[in-house]
Each structure stands twice: as C-alpha cells, then as structure tokens.
Amino acid sequence: NEDSEFHSSFPLSCNDLVASGRDRKPNALVQVSVIDPHKQHLVSHACTEIVEANKDPLFLTGVTFPSEYPASPETLVKLTVYDAKDKSQESVSKCSLLGSATFSVGDLLKAKDERLTLSLRSSDGVCTAGTVVVSRLKMGEMEEVDVDHITTDIPSQKVKQQSDQAKQESPCSRCLVCSNARIRNPVCKVYRFQTVDSKWMLVREQMEECTLSFSIPKQLLSLYIQEDMSRVQDLRELGDLSPHWDNLRKEVMTRYGETISSYQETLAELDKVTGRSFKPSCCKAQKSLEFIPINLHTQRMRVTCPRKTDACYDIVTVGAPAAHFQGFKCGGLQRLLSRYEGEKKSTAYQCIYYSPEHTAKAQEVLSTMSLLQPLITSLADQLLQAAQERSSTGLRDALKSLSDKTENLVHTLKDELVKSALLALHAAQPGYVSKNQKQTSPVQELPESVSFPLKHQDSIPHHKEYDEEEWDRAWANVAKCLTCVIAMVDKLLEDDNSKQEPVPEQQLADVITSHNLGEWREQLCPPVTRLKECVMEVVEKAKKAMTFVLLQEAACSIPQGFLLQQRRDVVFSQALAALACGFIMKLYAGIQDKGFLRQLHLVGMVAQFESLLSTYSEEIGMLEDMETGISDLQRVMFKITEAKTDDLDHFTVEVPLPRLFFQNLPEEIKEGKPLRVFPVLFNVGINEQQTIAERFGDISLQERINQKNFEILEAYYKSLSEKVPLECLPCFQTQTDIKELLETLGQNVITKKRKNVEILWIAGTICRRLNGIRFTSCKSAKDRTSMSVTLEQCALLRDEHQLNKDFFIRALDCMRREGCRIENVQKNIRCRKYAFNILQLMAFPKCYRPPEGTYGKVDS
Q: Domain C2, which positions (predicted)?
C-alpha cells in the first residue's frame, strides 16, 4: 500500500474563529495530537505557530507525525485550537480552548481534493467555535533513502575482517571505521511559505542524532591506549641506561601508564552508556563524557517549490570542541601550548632538548620503518617464492617492489637525526665517560660538546670516541645487499634467456634435467637472507635511536606536556566525531554527483566551522581549544576502501559504503585513494560578553583566526580552480562569482567592525558554493547556534527560492518557535526556552534575536 509510507505535509487553516472576548480577534494556534492505536490515549505531538489577531488564520507550520506513530490510513489525529491571548504564553495549558476536531488520515485521503473542513466543537461538545481546514499537499519523497540513510550494509564481521587486514598490511596506520553509522531519533517539521509570485513553497526540516558521537571517540580512545602501550614497550626495549637516563625513562613510563589507566577508565564508562546517541549540553563538563562532542546533530532542510528542482541544505550543529571538564581558568590550548613551549626550553636542563621539528621527524621515521620493515620481509619472501616457481615475470615484479621499498627505507635511515641520536644514546649507556669530562653532574654522561638547551642540528650531540662511520656502514650494507640481490636476479634471468635459444633435442633434455625448479631459489636465498638480516639490524638500531629522541621529548614534558596532550586528545576527539558525521552526510548527499566525486578525489573537501563564541571570559578559552582542535583535523584523511598509502602521520577514517553506492564511485576512490579535508574556522562573537571584549578587552584572537582561515580557504579555491572545472560545482540562483565572494570576505576580515556577522554569512555561502560541509557551533550548540541555523535557512529560502519578503520574519519566527531547534533545546534541558534574557538580547544583532515568548534565563 503506497499510502503506508506516507510522506506529506498537512497544512492547516481555520475559519470564523470565535474568541472568548467578543471585542477581539483570537491569537490562534493549533495543537496536534496523535491517538495511540493500542492504548487509546492522546499523544501530544506539536503546535503550530501563533497567528495574531486573525479569525481566519492560515498556519505556516504543518502537521507531521512522530517517528513512533508513523502515518497510515488508520491514524487518528486530534486538532485542538487555542486562543493564546499573547505571544508570550509558555504553554497551551495557559491558553483559552476554542474547540477541537478529530479526523483519520484515511478520511483525508478519500476526501475530494484531499481536503477536509472540520467543525470545531467546544469542550462540552455543544457550541461550534468555527472550522479547521486540513489539506494534503505532497512534497514528494523527502529522502532518497530511508531515515537510516547513512547506515552501511557491510556486516560487522566483515568490517572486523577488513580492519584486521588493514592492521596486518599497515601495522601503524591510525584507522577508525565508520561502521554502522546510524541516524537516530529524527525530528521533522513541515512549513509552507509564500514565494514572490504568490505561490506556495513547502519546506521540511529534519534534525537527527548520529551514533558517531560515541563510536568515533571510543575507537579513538582505543587507538590512543594502543599507541601509548607501544611507546612503553619501545622504552623498555632501549636496553640498559645509566642511572640518570633510566630514572627519566621510569618517570616517563609512569606518566604513560597514568594516561593509559585514565583512558581505559573512560572507555569502560563509555561502554556502559547505552541507548544514547548524543551528549546533552547539561553534561558538557561530565568527566566520563569529555571525549564526546556536545549536542551533535545533523539538520537537513528540504525545499519543494514551483518551477524549481527540489533542493536540500545540510548543516551539522555541535557544541564548541573544548575541554569543558578541565576548565578554562588558565586559558585554552592555543595559549597553553604557546606558554608550554617557552617553559620547556628553559627547563630542559635534565635532558637533551630536541626541537619540535626533530621530534616530529623521529615519529615519522618510526612510522615509516614500522611500515617498511615487514613489507620488505614480505616482498623478499615473494621473490623467493617466484624463484621457487621459476617465474620470470613474478621475479621481475617482486624485485621491482622490493627495490622500491628498500630504497625508501635507506633514504629514511640516511637522515642525520638518526645518526646523531645513535651517538646520544651511546652516551647515555652505563660506563660512558668522555676523555675530558668527569662525572660530576646529572648530565655528565653526555658528550662533551653538549650544552643545554640544544636547539638545532648544529647542537646535536657528537663525540670523538664513538665510530661515527659505523651507522653509515650499517645502512650502506642494506644498499649493498639489495645490489647483490638485483645482480643475482639479473644473472638468473640472463642465464634463463640464453637457455631459451634453439638447442638440439637431447641437449634440451639435459638442460631440463639439470635445472630443477628449486635451483633459482637456492642461488637467490643467501643474498635475500642477508638483506633481511641487515634490514632487521638497522631498523632495530634506528628504532632505539628515535625512541631515545622521543624519550627526551616526553622527559621534558613532565608533567605539563602530558596534561596538555590529554586536553588536546579530548578536543580532537570531539572535533573528529563532528567531522566524520558531516563527511558521511555530505558523501551520501553527493553520491550521484560526478562533479562532486571528482572534486573529492582530486582536491578534497572544505569543512567550514562557524563559531559564535565571544572573546571574553571562559569562552576565549573555549575558542582557543576549538582553534587547535579544528587545526588538528588537517591530519585526518577519509577513505572509502582500504587505503594503500605510506603517509602515516594522519588519522584515517574508513567509510564502508553499500555495494550499490560503491560501484558508482570513480576508480581512484574505489582503489582507496586518501580523501583530504580542509578544515577552516571563522568566529564572530555576538553576545553581551563580546560587547565587553570589543569595547574594553582584546579581540586579536578572533581577528587572527579569521585572517588565517581566510587564507586557507582562498588557497583551497585556487587549488580547486586549477584541477576541477568550476562547472562541476553546484548551481545557485545567486550568481555572485566565488572569486568575488572571496574578495568580499577578505575585505570584511580586515575591516574593524563590531560583531561583523557578514563574515559568517559570506564564509557560509562560499562553503556551500564549494560543495563543502557546514558546521555551526557555540558553547553548547543550543541557543546561539539555533539562531544562526534558522537565519541561514530563511536566507537560503529568500535568496535561492524567492521567499516573499513579507514572509521572511514570519518564517524566521516560525522556525525558531516551533521548528527543530526549539526541539533541540527541549532535548537538552527539558525546557522549551532559549537561554537568553532580555538584557542579553539587546546586545545581539537583531536578526539573531528569538521571537517573544521563546526565551528565558535557563541554566545551560
């Protein structure tokens, strides 16, 4: 029955309403209730907006059905009409009842023109208080797929097998899997608004939770635990160290142990959380939930209007990624990290100070070796197998791969940092005394040329007694062994080719008899074995050297560096969960768009975060956290299939796609090409605290963030225009050139103007024009975020769908009073009031102020 999957709007209107006072016209609203078919009781669902002083009101808010009671022909609906007296009425319980009527969906479907006119009966059922008109206006199918439109069809066991395979192929890849990413608890609202030519457009809002709110942070915590356990094991394997360095090692291992224990405890607490898909704002400072993003929701606006193709506009709303539990008394990450780097240099008296570039290089070398060493071993075995099978083609292919990977390894090992770190490690071993230095201080075991702090390459330890050429010989031996393998393979293939020349039949039989299948393997085995041994030897040495470098970093980081890293992990977790949610939403929305998919694999996708935080008091700390968290998202790659990449300084988020969708992807994406995102953040504070900051404080943080991220956005556009035809980008009614929009944004970014929200509007427009993901945040994504989202939706209706200017404010008030965002407030704090007071709102730009009666000071 096609009506069982019923996607319609039921616009409402009333005629001849009679108010309680004969000398006034009613302020009408309609409460919609569904009659539970099993328990036979009313389930209050939603209200229309209030239409003031009108006895024949036409309501913009239509009837929608709650997910637990989907519409069917048997569904019974009760419409109750009230006189609200004034707009500030808090609930229908304080309104005057005018009358009610009941109808079934089946009656509406059978009615002429699918329109019912129902008499409103008073509470005693005697008097007629007017009529209510219900009509059916189809919007078409609201979603291309069902509510769980980002659910993967890959069984969990298959995902596990793929994940296990990924770990085997790339042992140090940081891969998170978006398996079974589901949309839950949809809230739908439907409206009708008039266009400039007096036609009706239909608008549907749908707000949903996403299970990635919890699944991504839990996977990330597991990854952090594994990595820290691996670091502890690497430190143990450094071997004997002299007392000073051994004590430092023990202290660092203790700190790692504390972090592991804390993360395990948090993960255990998260595993206990069931049945929840989002963290409400009232829990933002809860320790056990600090890795979970605040109030993460997706929101889609679907528009159907005359003479224009249906359009969808998506946005992700999330509380500012920040360490709310840890607080902001001393600022946020941006300030804390800057202060910490300065302090670390001045307190590095007990360890060797390596620059951030050196420690980053050490991590890169470790990652590369961890990938290449097992890969080289595997390729060497493949080479021997090809020799066993006497396969010339297999031998050539395996040798080429083996040569490439071995040469990559040698290139990595030639780095000067590896050599100098080996010297420093040697100096830290028991019994070392330099020729001209007596053991008189905690740093006595260092080479005599070492002074503190060490800053750059020319200050890295040297010492005369250690044979500095030993390491050069070690990695050179790997290259020599590879040369021997290549020479042996060439000899075997050359001999084989010479034997392929025509020979008498008897001589050919002798050749076949004298050369059995295992002969190639026997000749090739010694040089291949020697190559594997040399590779293992240099990797072991280099691993210890790089671990020693990281030991210095960790030793200089006690305790502040460890605490800051935990804070950074918390913020990154929240930001990554939001990004993964937005990426999947955007991917499914554009899965049929060839231009979008081309843009995705050639350039990547911009992810634009809009923030409404002030630059005053604790919110400046939140903004500093958020800036660092969003910036860290540059280290995130997405892949649709198993990626084969050597780039390991990234987190990779794997997105399993249903087979039907996957088959239509470009080959580059199907082959697992890493897909980049370009996160950008723009912030404009709009509340009363921002007023204080602008008049008496400091807004340089906001100015710096906006300028820096404008440059990133401009560079992205330049790269995009060079690689992808701009015709592939979505078409909008507003024909302003993107380049012109960027110029306007650049001018606004440097203009000294208070609460210049045009920066947010222009940046949001550019993001949508670039096929990007839109995010909006404030402290908890509840109040200021709601004002921003509804304003953006109405602006899109005005600019792209010819919303009548007389309906703009009505549409805005309607969405804010009865739309998805007030439902978001209700979900978070169990109250249908935005947490503003009248004094705060006086400081807001006018277009960010909610309608009367929808706000009140609430703890949030």
A: 1-118
Residue 327 CA to residue 563 CA, distance in Å, equals 13
Name the one residue in this structure whose structure tokens are 């605490």.
563
Among 178, 556, 581, 778, the active-site one is 778
For 136-178, give the DSSP string: -EE---S-SS-SSTT---S-HHHHHHHHHHHHHHSTT-EEEE-
Please check the confidence at residue 126 and state whether its pLDDT lies above 90.
no
Q: What is the mean pLDDT of the chain?
A: 83
CA 622 to chain centre: 18
The answer to whether 52 and 26 are in contact (CB under 8 A) is no
| Angle (nearest 5°) at CA 237 between 232 and 242 | 100
Q: Is the torsion defined by CA of 347, 353, 357, 361 positive or negative?
A: negative
Q: Determine the Cα–Cα distance for residues 34 and 43; give it in Å rounded to an integer.
A: 5
Write the CATH number of the domain with boundaries 2-138: 2.60.40.150
Torsion of CA 384, 386, 391, 393, to 10 degrees: -110
Residues whose CB is less than 8 angstroms from the CB of residue 467 and which lie 6 or more positions away in sequence, other chains included: none
Of the pLDDT bands very low, low, confident and very high (cuts 50, 70, 90), residue 570 is very high
CB 854 within 8 A of CB 825: no
What token pair was written down for 471? 């390491």
* Per-residue pLDDT tens over the stretch 742-758: 999 999 999 999 999 99
Q: Which residue matches tokens 């994406």?
A: 669
Please give the pLDDT value at position 69: 65
Rounded to whole angstroms, the Cα distance separating 608 from 579 reads 10
| Of the candidates 314, 142, 240, the residue with the CA atom closest to the CA atom of residue 773 | 314
Tell me: pLDDT of 406 over 50: yes
Output helix, strand, coil percentages for the chain, rounded to the nearest 5: 50, 15, 35
Cα–Cα distance, 479 to 409 (Å, whole number): 10
DSSP calls for 48-60:
---B-S-SS-B-S
Per-domain boundaries in the chain: 2-138, 183-210+281-329+562-848, 351-558
pLDDT at residue number 444? 36
pLDDT reported for residue 265: 97
Please report the DSSP string for 575-633 in residue order: HHHHHHHHHHHHHHHTTT-HHHHHHHHHT-EEEEEEE---SSTHHHHHHHHHHHHHHHG
Helix axes 212-236, 519-556, angle to 10 degrees: 100
How many CA atoms are closer than 13 Å to the CA of 576, on its beta-carbon side?
31
Taking each helix axis from N to C terminus, what angle separates 469-499 and 356-388, rounded to the nearest 10 degrees? 30
CA dist., res. 297 & res. 208, Å (int): 6
Between 652 and 307, the higher pLDDT residue: 652
Is the pLDDT reported for residue 490 higher than 80? yes
Beta pairing partners, 191 = 61, 203
Kindly report, residue by residue over 608-635, the tens digit of the pLDDT: 999 999 999 999 999 999 999 999 999 9
What lies within 8 Å, CB to CB, of 446 at 6+ separation is 352, 424, 427, 428, 461
What is the DSSP annotation of 219-258?
A: HHHHHHHHHHHHHHHHHHTT----HHHHHHHHHHHHHHHH
pLDDT tens profile 503-546: 455 444 444 444 444 588 888 999 999 999 999 999 999 999 99
Residues linked to residue 29 through DSSP beta bridges, in sequence order: 82
Tell me whether residue 778 is one of the annotated catalytic residues. yes
